[in-house]
Amino acid sequence: MKWNQVSVLTTSEAVEAVSNILMELGASGVAIEDAMDVTNFESDAFGEILDVSTFDHIKEGAKVNAYYPETIFLPEILPTLNSRVTELVSFGLDIGKNEIETSEVVENDWATAWKKYYHPVTISRYLTIVPEWQDYTPHSADEHVMKLDPGMAFGTGTHPTTRLTLQALEVVLRGNETVMDVGTGSGILSIASKCLGADKVYAYDLDDVAVASAKDNMNLNPVAHDVEVSANNLLVGIDKKADVIVANILADIIIELIPDAYRCLNDEGTFIISGIIEDKEDIVLEALYANGFEVDQRFQQKDWLAFIVKKSIEE
Fold it and tell me: Where do the annotations place S-adenosyl-L-methionine binding (predicted)?
């Protein structure tokens, strides 16, 4: 069977949003080439460093490659794709060149080609993300190896927002907590929460593809077999209480989430937010303060920010 490849040349900042648009427009899978991934591997302070000279890689920006069966008429999709990617600017995202290219591929090429972009990622001394098709030997007894098939969802550990969120979870979790993972994507934050001792974990995503992918990834990690994954619009209608709520999503969506996060969070609980570009820091903080939160810790990698926040305590 023949397939068509649609490639969007964009920025590291916009890859997850662009990927989501392509999937919503009917793509059967996506592969991401990101120059930032190579930078992260070269500067990684933990474990073995990948020799980036051994494989071809993009030198600037990022490219999202999506795959459509030949039965889908691309001229009907491409104008909508261009319009929706352009609209991301209104959310504060830098979309870069926003150049779209198309080409033909055969099924065997696309079904496995994207795997060459994924390698074990050491987040910290305690957390390592490993593609499910690769063998990996832990470096220490207390290293948690999280298996992941990242092909159909987002959050593979290489993007700064995911790294910052995982590091924040390490700071917060001590064991036996109830965690809500909002916008779970690949499910990596839920898996990490279980590795770090969380008792109950509820994972939510609006996208059915992400829900299915997250469930598959839970099954790859026995520690996460009891994570409850379901489709939901943020925390709308959720009446459970959590000790920790974690969300690695766009800043504008975080602002929408804040009131429900306050409602669902225990009084002594913790709200972890990431996916915030530096230019959006002020408006996110303003929304947090207005809804009764105060910042406990701030994390930064390049232009990306994450925060650990708590409910304000009135004296």
Answer: 162, 183, 205, 248
